[in-house]
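Hey, can you fold this?
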Amino acid sequence: MADEATTAGGITTSDEITTVGGITTVDDLREHLQWAVDLEHTTLPPYLCALYSLDPQLNPDAAEAVAGVFVEEMLHLALAANLLNAVGGRPSLDPARLLTPFPRPMPHADPSLRMSLLPFGPDALDMFLRLERPAPRGGPAEGDGYETIGQFYEAIEAGLRDLCERLGEREVFSGDPARQITATSFRHTAGHMVEVTGLASALKALEEIVEEGEGTSRGAVWDGDPDVHHPDRDEVAHYYRFQELRAGRRYRRGDNPRSGPTGEKVTVDYDGVLPMRPNPRLADHPPGSEIRTAQEKFNLNYCVLLGQLEQAFNGEPKMLREAVPTMFKLKGEAVALMQMPDGDETTAGPTFEYVAPEDRPGGE
């Protein structure tokens, strides 16, 4: 930090500022919130591969769980974009860095937190449990090199509180409220879309992200929402949904992380999973081959989707409606790929590789 700078109101000099998870300025905050956008996006391809590999007729419990987590991760992506917009940033969803090859680390995370493209199964469950692992009790806020997602968002919360205390909310929340994504855009999740206009709503948005991932508090399995598929029971946080699939039972009232799930049975039929080759790449097949051509088509449409979402998060919310048919198209293309034999008793799969805007339909 420079020694001479002062805050807008002359409150303190920069060399007196205590670093809070690496966030000491509004620019630091914007950078970390873009990292949050990157983080939430990075979860989507692995969840989609696991979801599309499942036969929903043979695996209704697993398909319901993974689909629910995916929809809520889309909500988290929009919440991160709302947070970034609220502090005067511009969410970016279309740079090539978002689609570096899998397996890959989570953005700015501890190197052990890595993501792969896998069919649903024990390896995928291990990966998702590592990803959604609750922050340890007393664990520090970590703005970079974070061990858990909860610790990363704790650093953002601490930075927000610190900046608002030093600079005032008006200085921190300088974004255009018209750029906020509203609740009407997310109707198929029990989660809550939060329009971020100040510190209180920002904290609510952060709470929504963390609780849906790891529970309402350290040691709780519930995320505080009703189950969208089963209104008669409470919704289990992401980490514990994967624990249910691993254990073969649901959590019920009175259960906790130590007891594990003791409720009704959850059935997983691994014969009802398409055996997608792990971490497929375009380079695995020659240009013009059937699999590579299908993968290239999927990649093109996925990048179109990212472009649509970026437009939606940057002042054109109507683009969310445009994104819906693109998502359905991607599902059909991914399932078709996973039915193409790819040797060694595996099938092909989507590769999620980057296609530059000029190489897309209508690109410049």
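Oh, and this one too while you're at it.
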Amino acid sequence: MSRLALVSTDQRLQQKKEKVLRLLRRTGISTFLEAGESSYGSYNLLKEEFISLEEIQPGPTIDVIEDSRRAVEDEIVAYRVLSYSFSQDGRHYLLEVGRSTGSIGETERNFRYYALYILALAIGLTTLADLAYFRYLLRPLGTIIGRRLRDVRHPASFNFEPVETSTNDFRHLDESLRTMMRTVQASFEKERRFIAEASHELLTPLAALQYRFDNMLGDESLTEENQLRVVESQRTVHRLRSIIKALLMISKIENDQFTRTDTVSLRELTAEIAEEVQERLEVRGLTLSYSVEPDFLVPHCNRGLLFTLVVNLVSNAIKYNREGGQIHLLGRLAPDAAKFVLEVRDTGVGISKEQMSRLFQPFDKGEAADQDSYGLGLSIARTIAELHGIRIEVNSIEGLGSSFQLLFPAVPRL
């Protein structure tokens, strides 16, 4: 910028010199030098520029531009001065055109400001162009990430359609992901078949055993001791069948084998569950109160799984409650209205701090569990909740009771 300002100043001095020379040729020296005068000097008001013309003795030609200091009204001012000698009408003259270095600095600052603005504009335009260009270049990568990774919840929902791209690396990445997902999908399919076949192979002999035990109990010659043994064997078979069915359900949920096309009213669901467990409540002398205000619709869910989720929590509240205790099934909006809360609260024995950390682990029945518990109810509940994007929060005070809260994502409600 300093060099540019200097060059610009020198060009301006040259232009003024040519202008003065044209004026002298057209009007004559008398325009500046009156009769009897040998020199002429003129400064502008701020002493930023001056023109000087004086008669000199013949000598070498002068045509230079250099920095010089001049005394102007008792003040020393630094100038950039063009000195030029010429002849006219048989006489020799020296023309000087000067401009103060202060004004040159002002020009330099202006150039710097202009350059800064241009640079900022260039950076902005370049950045926008780069962003648009890179966005165009990386669009296939974004498609691959969205279609192959982010939007895939299960191998069965994977989209194997190739992503259109002319970039070899992106094409190779897409092909690698599709190959990998084919392998994963095949593994999941093998697991599904194994679980289905294994459960069938296990349940079939158990059903046969159950049938035989029923026939044995019908034998009148069977002693009372043997009848008790048969009954115990029946209970064991029933227990095994229940465990296999529970594990099969967990596996099917994790493998996304349940459709989620229902829209369920929580008010209707809680009323149905209250009616379902009424006999069990009467046997234990328990009371259940339920209220869902306002009603809440759960979209894109599986009604059967949602029923199992809530009924498992209610069953636990019945199982670990006191004689004559209470159970509350309450639905309400969260304080920030960002969630809907369905709470199952009881007045039972509560949960110890040690048990809290492993509450949802399979086959962990806890210290207060009865012999009929399999330790799979809460594990199934958590698996169903995760499938539907529902968060479970547990609060419990040992000796006073427990509270299980289901936090549903907020959606339009009735």
